[in-house]
Design a protein that fits this description.
This protein is an all-alpha fold and about 170 residues long. The chain has 5 helices and no strands. The protein is about 75% helix and about 0% strand.
């Protein structure tokens, strides 16, 4: 069973992952309204991935004999100045989520909760990938410039991202 402190922290992370999904879905809606289908696809895939993360946490809390308690999800932004601004915010957000995962790991170490430490290792590794992925898109948009031709090429490439297939029991 999880300690009360760890249960609360994991529930907060479930909420943070759901907010992440909500944020990326809002970014997808922005791109859709601006006729950038590749960016839309990339953000929809990202939103789905964040829900998979939330459900992994949800399952773990229950598996450990604790209770999932869901909180309100704040409204995400809906407008940005440019495609670059959207992806810069996505990158900053992933850095923030990394800090949350690190705090969870620190708590698990402090509480000597080895099972949670092992579980969280997947998230630590995942955040390295998440930050790299968002940073790569920021760099590509900067390199291409926000000319219509450069953005068109980046958008076309981003449209190749497949939607994640949730793993049963995750």
């Amino acid at each position: 069973m999880l300690s009360g402190k760890m249960e609360k922290a994991l529930n907060n992370q479930i909420n943070a992952e759901m907010y992440s999904a909500y944020l990326y879905l809002s970014m997808a809606a922005y791109f859709e309204a601006n006729d950038l289908p590749g960016c839309t696809q990339w953000m929809k895939a990202q939103a789905q991935e964040e829900m998979v993360h939330a459900m992994k946490l949800y399952g773990f809390v229950n598996e450990r004999g604790s209770r999932v308690t869901l909180g309100a999800i704040k409204a995400p932004p809906v407008e940005w100045d440019s495609a670059l601004a959207v992806f810069e915010q996505a990158y900053e957000h992933e850095q923030f989520v990394t800090s949350l995962i690190n705090q969870l790991m620190d708590l698990a170490i402090e509480e000597r909760d080895h099972a949670t430490q092992i579980f969280l290792q997947w998230f630590v590794t995942e955040q390295v990938e998440e930050e790299a992925s968002a940073s790569e898109v920021v760099n590509k948009i900067k390199l291409a410039g926000e000319t219509s031709g450069g953005l068109f090429i980046v958008d076309k490439e981003l449209g190749q991202r497949a939607l994640p297939v949730p793993v049963p029991g995750s």
